[in-house]
Amino acid sequence: MLRRVVFWGVSSGTIATASLTGFCYFENYYWDSKPNQGILPGDPSRPKLVVLGTGWSALSFLRNIDTTKYDVVCVSPRNYFLFTPLLPAATVGTVEHRSIVVPIREALSYKCQSMYRRIANILNGYRPERPLFLEVMCTKIDHQNKKVVCEDVSGITASANAQPIEIPYDTLVIAIGAQNNTFNTPGVHENCHFLTATNHAIEIRSHIIDLLETAVTTESIEDKRRLLRFLVVGGGPSGVEFAAELDDFLKQDLRHLYPRDTPYATVTLVQSTEHLLSTYDQKISEYTEQLFRWSEINLLTNTRVLDVKPGLVTLLHKPSQATHTVPFSLCVWATGVSPTPVAQAFIDSIPEQSHSRAIAVDCHLRVLGLKDVYAMGDCSTLVWDKLSSEAKKLFVEADEDKDGHLSLREVSQILNKMVQRNPNLAVHVQKANKWFESFDKDHNGFLEESEFMKMLKQIDSSLKALPSTAQVADQQGHYLAHQLNGTTDNMFVYRHKGELAYVGGDHAAATLGDTVLTGATAGVLWRIAFLDMLAAVGWKNTLAVSFDWAKAAVFGRDTSRV
Q: For the residues 66-71, what does the mean pLDDT come to?
C-alpha cells in the first residue's frame, strides 16, 4: 500500500513538473515572440494607445492592458522601472541601485504580464503583440490634434539633424509622475540633492563617502564637524527613511572604518509641520520622533526653509517667527511633489483644469475637460463634488417624511445614495452612527438642517487627496487597464492596505487597519512586505534585494566611492 502511494505521488509530481515546464517553455519561446511593428503607421485595425511614463501606475497598467485590443506605445526617457520605496536604502548601500530597477523591455514582455491576462489570451487563442517602448521624452501634449511631441534627450541621436518625434494617439494615458516641490525656495536646485531617481542615490552615496575621506585628511575638530553636517529637509516617508538609513550607516559601518571622524558627524531633519510622518497614525509619528531623539538625530519641527546658500540654510521657526541659520555639508531635499513642466503646460491649456498642483481627473481617471485622455499616479489628483455644496438639496431629498429633521435611517440612506457618485464615501457610510451621534448636539435622535450641513462639511474635509504612494499608483494602473479592456465600468475606489516606514536600527512602524505596530517586529514585517511587492515586479529583484540585505548584515555596507 505504501509503495503504491509513493509511486502515484512521485508520478503525479513528475507529470505536474513536466506540464509546468512545458507551459513555461511554450509561453517564453512561442507565445512571447511577436514584436510590435513600429510607431507609424501601426496597426490601423486597433486604436493606438500611448502611455507616458514607466513608473508604478504605468507598469501596472501595461501589465494588465489587453494588447489584442490596442496598439500600445510606451514613451519615457527612462528605460527602466524603479522600485522607489527602497531608494533611500540605495543611498547608503543597504541595497544596490541595480537591485531595485527592472529594464522596462523585460517588464513589458509577455511573461511579465498579469496571470489573469496571460491565461485569458491563451484560452482565447490570442497571440498578443508586446507594447512598443521608445526611450524619448515627451515635451508637449497636443490634445487638440491628439498627438504627443517627443525628443531624444539621451545625448545620442539617430541623425545629426534629428527632428522631434510626433506620435498620434486615439487614447492617451499620462503617468509621468511629478518632481520635488521646492516651494520656490531660492538656492534649492543649486545646493541640494533630490531623492527621486537612481542617479540621485548614486550621487548622495558618493558625496557621503567623499566627505568622510576628506575629514580623515584634517586634524582640526572644527573642520571635521563642518565636513560631517548632514541635513535632511522634509519629514515625510522619504526624508525620514533617508535620515534613518544615514544614521544606521554612520553607526553600524562608518564608525568602525572612520573611528576618529564619525563622532563629529551630525544628522539634522527639518520638518515644516509639528510632527514627522504627519499623514500617518499619531502613534507612528510619536514613536518615530522618540526613536530619532534617542538616536541623537536633531529634529527641527514647525520650521520652514527660507533660502539655501552653499553650505548654509536659513530657517524660520513658525511659532516664534524667529530666523536662524544652520550649516551643512550635504543637504537632501525630500519634500512634497509638484507638476513637471510638461504636466503644468498641459494643465494650463485646458480651461476645466483649475487644480494647479496636479492634473485633475474624475472618478474614472479621465482628465477633466477631455474625452480620451486619462491621468494617474503622482501627476494626477482625483476630484469630486463637495457634499456641502448641495447640502440643502440633499436635506430635502433625505427628509422622506417631511418633518423638518433627519433620523439616523434617513441620514444613512442619503449617504448610501451618494456612494454611487463617489465610492470613496463608503468608509464614511460605515461610520454613519458615529457621524450622527457627533452632530446630534441636543441628543434628540434627529439632525436639524444646520447640524446636517455641519456634518457634510466635516465629511468633505475628511475626503483628502489620495497620497503620492506606490500603492495608490499601482491600484490606479490596474483599474484603468481593466476599464479600457471593458471588464469594468465602476468608478475607481482606493483601498488602503496600510502604511510602512523604516525608522532605523532595524525598526519600522506599520499600520494594518486599526492596528499599529512598531519596533523590530514591524521591521520584519516591513522587509517581508517589500519582498512581496518586489515579487510582483520580478523574482530576480526579490532575490537581489534579499542578497543585498544579507550581505549588508554580515559584511557591512560597501564604502567604495565609484
A: 90
